[in-house]
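Researcher: Quick test of sequence recovery. Tokens follow.
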């Protein structure tokens, strides 16, 4: 009987398309390794980008590995009209020059993917952008207008058992 209940439960999960253990992302967001990403094909400042992401209960993306950087680059390539464009990410050195951290958490950045000759140490280039063509990072003025990527650190969906009676 227990085996039959298990088979029926799995069949119902498949029939209704329920994804157990995967991130539950909002519509039009892309799920990847425990996060949801939204690629915004509009130009705005770094601060405007951050504010928009926060309005979506998200933050600018914090790129924490080469694998994540490569994932972002694959999706950014889908914006063919954005060739040679840059996309804001959450990195900044606004607090202290050349001390890079994620703005949303104030955690130091441990993975970098700087483009050649970057970060170049120029004053007033306090925000990081990722290149659409190479995936390399460059520091720019936060007032430049770029496209951007929002991220929600998602939690797996789960089913709970409730005792009724």
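Model:
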């Amino acid at each position: 009987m227990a085996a039959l209940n298990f088979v029926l439960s799995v069949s119902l999960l498949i029939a209704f398309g329920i994804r157990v253990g995967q991130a539950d992302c909002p519509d039009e967001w892309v799920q990847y390794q425990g996060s949801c990403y939204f690629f915004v094909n509009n130009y705005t400042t770094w601060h405007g980008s951050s504010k928009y992401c926060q309005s979506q209960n998200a933050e600018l993306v914090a790129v924490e590995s080469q694998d994540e950087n490569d994932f972002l680059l694959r999706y950014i390539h889908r914006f063919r009209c954005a060739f040679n464009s840059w996309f804001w990410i959450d990195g900044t050195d606004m607090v202290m020059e050349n001390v890079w951290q994620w703005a949303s958490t104030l955690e130091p950045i441990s993975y970098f993917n700087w483009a050649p000759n970057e970060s170049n140490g120029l004053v007033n280039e306090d925000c990081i952008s990722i290149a659409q063509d190479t995936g390399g990072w460059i520091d720019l003025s936060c007032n430049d207008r770029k496209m951007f990527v929002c991220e929600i650190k998602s939690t797996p969906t789960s089913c709970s058992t409730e005792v009724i009676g």
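Strands lie at 30-32, 35-44, 59-60, 86-92, 101-102, 127-131, 137-140, 146-153.
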